[in-house]
Amino acid sequence: MKNFAQLIKTLDSTNKTNTKVEALTEYFRHANDKDKVWTIAILSHRRPPRPVNTTLLRLWASELANIPLWLFEESYHIVGDLAETIALVIPTTKNQSDKSLSEFVEEMITLKKKPEDEKKKYLHQNWLALNYYERFVFTKLITGSFRIGVSQKLMTRALARVTEMDEDILAHKLMGDWNPQTVSFQKLVLDEKPEDMLSKPYPFYLAYALEDEVEELGNPDEWAAEHKWDGIRSQTIIRNGELFVWSRGEELVTDKYPEFQCFIDTLPDGTVIDGEILPWVNNSIGSFNDLQTRIGRKIVSAAILKKVPVIIKAYDLLEWQGKDIRDLPYKERRRLLELMYEGVKELDLPLQISEQVTFNNWEEAVREKERAREVRSEGLMFKRKDSPYLVGRKKGDWWKWKLDPYSIDAVLTYAMRGHGRRSNLFTDYTFALWQEKEDGERELVTFAKAYSGLTDKEFRMVDDYIKKNTLERFGPVRSVTPKLVFEIGFEGIALSGRHKSGVATRFPRILRWRTDKAIEDANTIEDLKALIPK
Amino acid sequence: MKQPLLAFNDKGIYCAQANVYLDPWRPVTNAIITHGHSDHSRSGHKNYITHHLNVPIIKHRLGDINVTGKDWGETFSVNGVTFSLHPAGHIVGSAQVRVEYKGEVWVFTGDYKTEDDGLATPYEVVKCDTFITECTFGLPAFKWLPQQEVFNDINTWWAQNKAEGKTSVLFGYTLGKAQRLLKHLDTDIGKIYTHGAVENMTEVIRPMVDLPPTTLITRDTKKEEIAGNMVIAPPSAHGTPWIRKMTPYVTGAASGWMAFRGARRRRAIDRGFVLSDHCDWQSLLESIKATGCEKVISTHGYSEIFSKYLREQGYDARTEHTQYEGETDEGETEQKDQREKEGGES
């Protein structure tokens, strides 16, 4: 554990990519195989199941620190991170623990099934046996949320250095559904086993956002374009008579979409499709909100299947007739995709092809982009016709060109402290719009929360305003005298019964601070509803 | 109802019987000043009374003022009220104010810490009935390590940076923290350079405390001579063009707030050292207990939370709002006006 805690400390205390990769490389060079596997698992968000819920963690930590629970909770609100709060309030003793990371994790796994008093004893014992930073890392492992600014990519790069393996091949190996409890480092990383590859997806190629003028892409003839769909990026694999559906988060989601099972008997074996999962309601693309009702569910009921059916909009073909064709130029892969689609399009499958948009010059592309909301897309995608399918986010061949977001002017009404690096500032805001009451008076009604989009300096100014203009406190939340107006941007909008305003927005964020506007100038709920696509 | 010996009004902490203010934030006639940080010692008062060690400090900061210096424990009476100053251990010359009238004793701490830092006259417990205390770090999340451990870390960090060919830039507020760092840096490792604001204040402190030699960074200072050495700068120097001269450099900050990962990350500091001139949770509680007081008034810091906890422990505790800021996340209040006034080398 000492080495792992030291690694996390180093990763956490630098913003420099090179320092991070070096620290990871050093760690992987010296860690034992079991610790290596668990480290890979933890840094790729395959955490052990949470053995104790946070309510009990708070209670037991406050007992050990000899402080009342309310005082622990207040400290937590201010510190902003549960594991950090626990590590801070519990005293450090002279005790030591030489247990390794994997020993700890394996103990945590068996702990889950133990009675409460044993869990408590285990936690108290270990909290006292670890030093401050080890205690923090240990508690992080228990609470599960391990965000320390190391992407899977950096970890893979370090591992590639240590094993002298190809980074892309490693990325491929580390994807998918493996169990850190049973897999050995040899098997996971070092062995080459083709049969393990059956379910494995290819690393996704990710597009960069187009920031310059579209003309900068050069000759329009070199580019293919299609609409950018607003669903779930997915990879659909048919191999050896089995179906695997992966989401971009490298999660195996086959069971969530039973309607795709029909692909096994209809699509040729040895096919891998890159495409978007989209809700298909009343023969047209539904909203992302519709899709959300399916994402969260473990068990997909017949009712929900009927209410929100889904389709795949296919836009690329990565494997064809059992062969990895990612090195073929895009136009060739596209030709094969169309060929495949031709063969099944009469079968009424939940499969569509993402239509190509034709344009002879950039002006026509601009006009097509303006149709995006009409066809329920987020904008356009450009793909270089002669480009291979790359790994990860690499600049140059794929560009996404998104519509400007919807925007509306809203009033800041509530604020909460941020988390992590913003825990001393009020940076999580709730915004409201005007609504007319029955008596004709106007009131502010909450419609969205947002916590990004201002500069650090602006955050400090707003924070200062909030601290001086607090009306009421509700735990970590403060209501604020309505005065500040912000332009709020969002990507999608739909009617919603679950929101007080009656409207749900997608990816709300602050576009800018409207210091030129008074609260009377803010928009109304009616203005917001007028933005909903008909 | 009997008027309390000390009351909080819109100018500061007021003793009506003596017509004297403690650390007032608006101009008054008679002001007793606990220490030199700008949220406690403001300009515009007619008469200043403070410990004599603080006299050169506030004269440096406030210019030509009418100030009287007192010794530790020296009593002076105004209209039947007896005042005396006692060491607060916060920075050089920092005092608690003891106020006695007809057998009733109040103590106002100003800012204080109980650990002996080797510079400030060590904190002394003063028995009282009512204790007016700061609680900048009045949360159980704050626990300081003995300063020797922190300085071992700082010196190890410096030596390591030097071995890697990098300059160490350590941020600490101009008055107090900067000199505390200077005092405990291991000068066998290398030379210590200073930012203008730090150098000016250090010159004021030197006659009172034995400090290692420092070199002011000026326009003529060569980049090569700084390399691998230590630079002490105010937090406000972070991210300014001034710092480019130190390239390649590594930044560190010494502050109580560095206990929080968030504080360090937000300020984009490479290394945080948890080192404060204020009490941590435990020493606040211990010093309150040691005074034998019944009533506790918390001024700046997490005062609402702290008072609520004290009430649960059986104290008659409440909060009063003041304009003191203690150690802010940006460094002690001191910083902003120091930099504006003295400019440094930016």
List its salient traits:
heterodimer, A: 534 residues, alpha+beta, DNA ligase i, domain 1, D-amino Acid Aminotransferase, Chain A, domain 1, OB fold (Dihydrolipoamide Acetyltransferase, E2P), seven-stranded mixed β-sheet, seven-stranded antiparallel β-sheet, 19 helices, 36% helix, B: 346 residues, alpha/beta, Metallo-beta-lactamase, Chain A, Rossmann fold, six-stranded mixed β-sheet, 9 helices, 21 strands, 24% helix, globular, disordered C terminus, DNA_ligase_ATP-dep_N (chain A), DNA damage (chain A), DNA recombination (chain A)
Architecture overview:
The complex is a heterodimer of chains A (534) and B (346). Chain A contains 19 helices and 23 strands. With 534 residues, chain A is an alpha+beta fold. The radius of gyration of chain A is 26 Å and the shape is globular. In chain A, helix 1 crosses helix 9. Chain B has 346 residues and is of the alpha/beta class. Chain B folds into two domains: 7-142 and 278-331, Metallo-beta-lactamase, Chain A; 147-274, Rossmann fold. Chain B has helices at 55-62, 147-163, 177-184, 196-205, 223-226, 261-266, 281-291, 303-312, 334-342, and strands at 7-8, 13-15, 20-22, 30-32, 47-51, 67-70, 76-78, 81-87, 95-101, 104-108, 130-135, 167-171, 192-194, 215-216, 230-233, 249-255, 271-274, 295-301, 316-319, 327-328, 331-332. In chain B, the strands form four sheets. Chain B has a seven-stranded mixed β-sheet, covered by helices on one side. In chain B, a hairpin with a 2-residue loop joins strand 9 and strand 10. Chain B is globular, with a radius of gyration of 20 Å. Mean pLDDT of chain B is 91; it is low at 330-346. The chains are: A alpha+beta (534), B alpha/beta (346). Chain A binds chain B through residues 12-15, 65, 67-68, 70-72, 74-75, 78-81, 84-85, 88-89, 91, 418-425, 456, and chain B through 139-143, 257, 259-266, 268, 270-272, 302, 305, 308-309, 312, 329. Chain B: Keywords: Ligase. Chain B: InterPro entries: MBL, RibonucZ/Hydroxyglut_hydro, Xnuc_lig_assoc.
